[in-house]
Amino acid sequence: MKQFFKFVLATIVGVVLSFFVLILVFALVLGGIIASAGGEKSTMVDNNSILYISIQKAIEERTPDNPLEGLEFLGLGGDKSIGLKDILANIKKAKTDDKIKGIFLDESYMQSGQATTEEIRNGLIDFKKSGKFVVAYSEIYTKGFYYLASVADKIYLNPKGMLEFDGFSSDVTFYKGALDKLGIEAQVIKVGTYKSAVEPYILTKMSDANRLQVNSYINSLYNHYLNGISVSRKINKDSLYKYADDLYIREPEDALKYKLVDGLKYKDEIIAELKKRTGTSAKNDLHTVDVVDYTNAPVGDKDDVSSNRIAMVYASGEIAGGEGNDNSIGSETLSKALRKVRLDEKVKAVVLRINSPGGSSLASDVIWREVLLTRKVKPVIVSMGDVAASGGYYIACAADSIYAQPNTVTGSIGIFAILPNMQKLLNDKLGITFDNVKTGKYADMGSVDRPLTADERAILQAQVNRGYFDFTKAVADGRHKTREYIDSIGQGRVWTGEQAIKIGLVDRLGSINNAVKSAAKMAKLKDYRVVDYPDQKSVLKSLSSSFSAKIREDMVKEELGEHYGVYKQIKGLTQMMRVPQARMFYNVEIR
C-alpha cells in the first residue's frame, strides 16, 4: 500500500509539473508569435500594381492593434481588420504613388455604416482626380457596396450574380411578448415623445411618433443614396426611384440594361482587363497590393515632422463609466485623454471623432464637461461618424463646430430609465418569494422583485426630467439656441446629418479631413501633424481580456443554446436599470 501511494503521489506531481511546463511552453510560443508578428514589416510594391480593396470584417474607426490577426492561431486569427483611418490614408497615398495604377474593388458584403461608406466613397472620388482608374466587381452587390462602387469607372457584375436595388427598409425587433411570457415587466421612465429606445420592451410595434421619425430619416438617407448614384452613373434620380420601386432589377441582364453596371463578367475576365490596364502580359501574374498590407508600404517624405499637433480623440462605441476599450467609450479613459491634450502645449487643436449611439447619461455628462473645459483652452471640432446620437450628441454639443456626413444619424436628445419588474417570473414561474426589513421607506427602491410604487415612479420621473433639462440646456448653450427651441427639436427625435444642419444641430457637412482642416484654420496652423488619442490597449492586455470574455460567452451559449439571444436582451435590460440612459438603439439596418 505504501508503494501504491508513492506511485500515486509521483503521478500527481508529474501531471502538475507537466501542466506548468505546458503553460510555460505555451507562453513562450505565444510570446514568440506576438514578437514575430508584432514587428512592422515593410510592404514592397511592384511597378504597375493595383490597390486591392476587399474588406471582410466590420470597419472600425481605427485598425485593431492585434498582430495575431491572420495567423489562424487557436481561432484568434483569420482575416485581417483595417480601420477607416488607414483605409482613407491608403487611398490618399495610392493617389500619388507612381507604382499604383488603379484600384480594384472586389466585394460582396460591405460591413460598414453609411457615413463610413460615405467617407471611403469620397476618398475614391478624390483618388480618381489623379487620372487613375477604379474598377469594381462583385457576385452580389448589396445596397451599401453598390453605393460605394457607383463611383468606379467601370462596374462589373457576375453573369449569374445579383444586384440589390429595391429601396430601403428598417426593421425593429420587439421583445415585449417574450418578456410577458417570462413574467418580466419593463418599467419605463422617460422624457421624449420620440425616444424609441424603450419601445422594444414595452410595445409590440412602432408607436406613431417613432414611425413618423423613422419614415422621415430613412427617406432622407434614401434620397441621399439615390442622389449619389444619380450623379455617379448619370442616371435621372426619378428613374432610379422607379427602378427600385417597381423592382426593375431582377436579373443581371436588367442591371446592364438600365445602366447600373457596365458589363457582366466573370472574375477571370476582370483580371484579364486589369492586366491590359496595367500593361501586364497575359502570361504574367497581376501585381496587386492588399489595402491592409499597403499601410506598411514605404512612402515619400512624411509631413509629420512639425511640433504642432492636432489631437484626434476617438470616441467610439457605447458610453459607460470606467475605462472602456477600443470599441466602447469609458468616461474615465476619454476624460483622461481630453485632459492630456488640453494640458499639452504642443496640441494646438482637437478633433473629437464620435461614432456612438450614447449610453449612460452620467458618463456622457462627465465627458461633456471635459469637452467644455478643453474648448476654453483650444479649438475643439467634432467629426461625426455613422451615428452620434443621444449621449453621443451630448458629448458633441460643447464643441466649437460640428461636422457630420449627410447620412450620419444624430440627435435623439432625450433621457430614459428602465427598471425590470420580475415579480411574476420569480413568484409564479420559479416559486421564489422575498421578504425584507428596511429602515427607510425607499431603502429598497428599484428592487426587481416587485413593481414600483406611485411615489417611487414619481421620484424617478423627476430625476429623468432633471437629466433631460440638463441635456437640453447643455445643447442650447453649446449651439447658442434657447432651451425651448432645443426641446422642440429634441424629445428624443432622430435626424440625419442632412436634416440636422437645417435645424442647427450640425454646422457643416463634411469628412474627417474637413474637420481636421477646420481645426487647423481655427488654430492658425500652416504645418501640423495629427496624433491619435487615447492610446490603443496593449496587445497582451487586449488578448487576455478578449480571450477570457470569449470563453465566458461560449460557455453561456452552450448552456442556453437557442435562448442565448433572449438572454442577451434581458442582460442588457438589467444593465440599463442602474443609471438613466441617453441612448438610442442604433439598429437602422438598411436592407
TrEMBL record:
EC number(s) reported in the record: 3.4.21.-
UniProt-listed CDD domains: S49_SppA_67K_type (cd07018), S49_Sppa_N_C (cd07023)
Peptidase S49 domain boundaries: 127-278, 375-526
Main location: membrane
Compartments it resides in: Membrane
Organism: Mucilaginibacter calamicampi
Keyword field: Hydrolase, Membrane, Protease, Serine protease, Transmembrane, Transmembrane helix
Protein name: Signal peptide peptidase SppA
Family under the similarity heading: Belongs to the peptidase S49 family.
Keyword Oxidoreductase in annotation: no
GO molecular-function terms, A-Z: hydrolase activity
Transmembrane segments: 7-34
Keyword Aminoacyl-tRNA synthetase: no
Cited Pfam families: Peptidase_S49
